[in-house]
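PROTEIN DESIGN WORKSHEET
SECTION A - STRUCTURE
LENGTH: 221
TOKENS:
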């Protein structure tokens, strides 16, 4: 669906599914297994920042986000979501993430952002540092700031630890807890995409629960 302003109602789509069965104890070492990804992502996020600065000036001059730059930054976000889903802010799969910037439709964690044909010159000047500030405060609570291994210390980290402990003792990942964790992560990635100038659609102050991006009319902004 497309809004009257010309961009999709849901330009950022975050989806995930729980793999079954999940190992009861693999989550204890996933953050170690993911170290090669963390190293690569460190450099990719430096490139992401540089690309975003270049895109800022391109949008300011042309109202367009160069497609090659957009696809690269989308790839970094996809890679980050897969690694986070595996080793950090969900622990919803035991499948090792691929070293890929591509879509990887078979992986249980997926992210997509609709490419915008036009972006506002005015918004590009303020949305990433001013308009997004209320969301920064919210996701700061979600993400926390104390990193101990894979645990971030925020709400998402706390809930993921609870899910991991329940998994260890019961062999099952609580569905309601999974839905909440994915909803929190979905909020975070919507804000990242907005702050990275990849959409003019302001992120909703709304917690869309569940592994599948909601599509029903009552959930639409």
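SECTION B - SEQUENCE
RESIDUE ASSIGNMENT:
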């Amino acid at each position: 669906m497309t809004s009257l302003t010309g961009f999709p109602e849901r330009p950022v789509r975050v989806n995930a599914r729980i793999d079954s069965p999940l190992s009861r104890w693999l989550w204890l070492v996933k953050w170690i297994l993911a170290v090669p990804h963390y190293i690569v992502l460190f450099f990719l996020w430096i490139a992401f920042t540089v690309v975003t600065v270049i895109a800022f000036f391109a949008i300011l001059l042309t109202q367009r986000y160069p497609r090659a730059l957009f696809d690269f930054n989308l790839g970094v976000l996809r890679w980050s979501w897969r690694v986070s889903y595996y080793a950090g802010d969900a622990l919803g799969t035991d499948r090792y993430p691929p070293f890929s910037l591509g879509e990887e439709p078979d992986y249980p964690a997926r992210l997509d952002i609709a490419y915008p044909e036009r972006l506002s010159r005015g918004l590009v000047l303020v949305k990433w540092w001013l308009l997004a500030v209320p969301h920064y405060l919210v996701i700061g609570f979600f993400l926390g700031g104390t990193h101990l291994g894979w645990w971030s210390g925020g709400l998402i980290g706390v809930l993921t630890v609870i899910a991991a402990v329940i998994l260890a003792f019961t062999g099952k990942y609580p569905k309601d807890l999974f839905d909440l964790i994915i909803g929190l992560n979905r909020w975070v990635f919507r804000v990242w995409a907005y702050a990275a100038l990849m959409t003019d659609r302001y992120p909703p102050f709304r917690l869309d629960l569940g592994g599948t991006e909601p599509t029903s009319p009552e959930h639409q902004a």
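SECTION C - NOTES
The first strand starts at residue 12 and ends at 16.
Confidence is low (pLDDT under 50) at residues 1-7, 217-221.
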